Q: What sequence folds into this?
């Protein structure tokens, strides 16, 4: 599906037949992908499967060798990279970093930081915050674009295990509050499955895709990840009567 007339009015992004070769290796082969309004789509697959490469092609950061990418006219994308190297000698506060990244009012920055429960970090030096806090700052930077589509590359990178589910629940909440769609790369399968509308299993080509419960029993998925992962996903639910803070500690009941 190219940039010609798109019959689906809810479509934000569509890729068709994407091929990409890097250093004589075929990284992407015939990739098709669609994202509609309000969807959370998660890309999963082994290391080196081409997930980040696909995202970079969709964003126009890498040229494709073949295929087409459609972006709805006027589409605003907020991108959160997998990691960001910060110069340890650079004195810059979280608020200043966000203001430089996205020219907007201090009020807007405060609102986004509040939504992500990190308003207290505003005046702190960027190099002094934890890995989990930095991920939320990068998410704030993406949200300041007021995006129709959030693209998140391993958003739980550097986050303690106890705080990862909290972050994914926050992403699901953002989808509803901000009315945006989400395309996410993740290895935390058991955590993202419960809040994902569609899973795309990638290993240089699309091995399988569909609802989480369908993908977790697909033979192609089982071949990549094994039956133990499938069993854990099938029985996984994340219902509990407590919340974690950014550092992964359980919050007191009155917090």
A:
């Amino acid at each position: 599906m190219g940039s010609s007339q798109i019959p689906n009015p809810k479509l934000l992004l569509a890729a068709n037949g994407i091929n990409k070769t890097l250093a004589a290796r075929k990284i992407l082969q015939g990739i098709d992908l669609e994202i509609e309004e309000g969807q959370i789509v998660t890309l999963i697959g082994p290391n080196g499967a081409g997930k980040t490469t696909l995202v970079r092609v969709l964003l126009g950061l890498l040229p494709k060798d073949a295929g087409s990418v459609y972006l709805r006219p006027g589409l605003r994308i907020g991108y959160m990279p997998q990691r960001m190297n910060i110069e340890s000698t650079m004195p810059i506060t979280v608020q200043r970093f966000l203001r430089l990244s996205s020219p907007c009012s201090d009020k807007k920055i405060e609102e986004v930081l509040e939504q992500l429960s990190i308003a207290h970090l505003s005046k702190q030096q960027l190099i002094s915050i934890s890995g989990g806090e930095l991920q939320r700052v990068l998410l704030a930077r993406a949200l300041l674009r007021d995006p129709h589509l959030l693209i998140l590359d391993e958003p739980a990178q550097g986050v303690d295990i106890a705080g990862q589910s909290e972050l994914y629940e926050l992403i699901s909440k953002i989808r509803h509050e901000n009315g945006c769609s989400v395309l996410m790369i993740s290895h935390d399968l058991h955590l993202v499955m419960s809040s994902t509308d569609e899973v795309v299993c990638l290993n240089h080509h699309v091995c399988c895709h569909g609802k989480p419960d369908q993908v977790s029993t697909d033979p192609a998925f089982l071949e990549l990840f094994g039956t133990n992962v499938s069993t854990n996903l099938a029985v996984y639910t994340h219902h509990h009567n407590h919340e974690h803070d950014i550092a992964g500690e359980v919050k007191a009941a009155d917090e």
Summary: DSSP finds nine helices and nine strands in the chain. The mean pLDDT is 84.
